[in-house]
Amino acid sequence: MGENSLGNPEFVSELVAQFAGEIQAICKRGETGELDIPDVEREMQEASRRMSAIFTGKTKGYRVTTWNTARLGGLESKARVFLASLKVNYGNDFWFDNSDPVAGLFFALAHQVVSAYLAARNGATEHHLPDAMQYVICMLMGYPDPPVESEPLQKSQVHGYTKRDGTYVKPYATNVVAKPKPAPGGGVKGHTAPPKPKPIPKAIHPKPNDVGEPVGLYEPHVETDAAHWGQPDKIATFIPRGLGGDCPYKLYGGNAVEGQKPDLKEPPLPEVAKGKHLSVGVVVEESDGRVWTISPSNRFGGYDNTFPKGTLEDGINPQASAIKEAFEKSGLKVEITGFLADVERGTSTTRYYRAKRVGGDPTDMGWESQAVHLVPRERLAAHLQSKYDQPLIAALTNNNEKS
Known about the structure:
Layout: H1 9-31, H2 37-55, H3 66-69, H4 75-90, H5 101-121, H6 129-141, E1 161-162, E2 168-169, E3 203-204, E4 216-217, E5 236-238, H7 248-251, E6 277-285, E7 291-296, E8 309-311, H8 318-330, E9 332-344, E10 348-360, E11 369-375, H9 380-383, H10 390-402
Parallel strand pairs: 6-10
Antiparallel strand pairs: 1-2, 3-4, 5-11, 6-8, 7-11, 9-10
Helix pairs in contact: 1-2, 1-5, 1-6, 2-5, 4-5, 5-6
């Protein structure tokens, strides 16, 4: 099935995720004062109408299915029933365009994105956005409703629906979660069974990636109790809040960035084997003896936890690059204190520096990290399970014994 087909579950999932990212961007503009509340609502409505135009065949460039365009028994009919169930619970609190029920469906999803965004800003990770996105995707595809374990788009756990004889059943609460039964033909002409949709992120990183796209997090971390920050024997975990601080490398003029150690005696940069590239990393030590680590978003590179590092870009000296990588990956502003080791990793040869934290905020981590941790030194070996990080733990221990 074509990549731009509205019968392709992966493509539909991507469109819904992009919509969520657009709503998140609107939230940020409202938070900074660029938009006032009426403007936020208006832009959310316009975004919802654009999505409706795509899924009802009014926007060129998309391959629609019978489910999308059927006047009776298709997407618009099901969206209309869904909106009626929302009105049962919420009255006229939501915006509805009776002539465009699919836009109303997306507007309800937009409110779930807003709720998740506000929850993330307050440090919470539990919200209903993943359930809501899964529910909407199933509706857009013409699949049976997924089991409802929480409150995806309304207060009742079971949505209102219309029986085959035309009888409408109002939404009702239940503690029983039934497994969905496949509709005859899979709900879409030509399907014998609905294919499994693309996994839905459980959270959205507050910072977009380098090309402005939203970053979904499939297994987000949970922040530890705030008291762990002041307990040297505990691991303290921080999750992203998207504070938007300025990168010190850009703020202070590139290679002139503060925090470098000009008199540092370090070996020449190592030779790089064919097929690898040169990277720079940093091991940041806290005054209480703990060490800072990061969790790459969605276990990128296969890492649960590791130290901040990144490719050494042309025109940037190694120490400045290490300071830049520390901020982008962990939100911390650091000062180089020494040379640690050169390590051969899977795809790179990486120079690592030792450093200390002098500012910043770990919740200001960039999109490439989904958590930042402050780890007791004696627990690093268990915390960092990659074979490439073990030599750094040994080098850190040796250096401390010498000093």
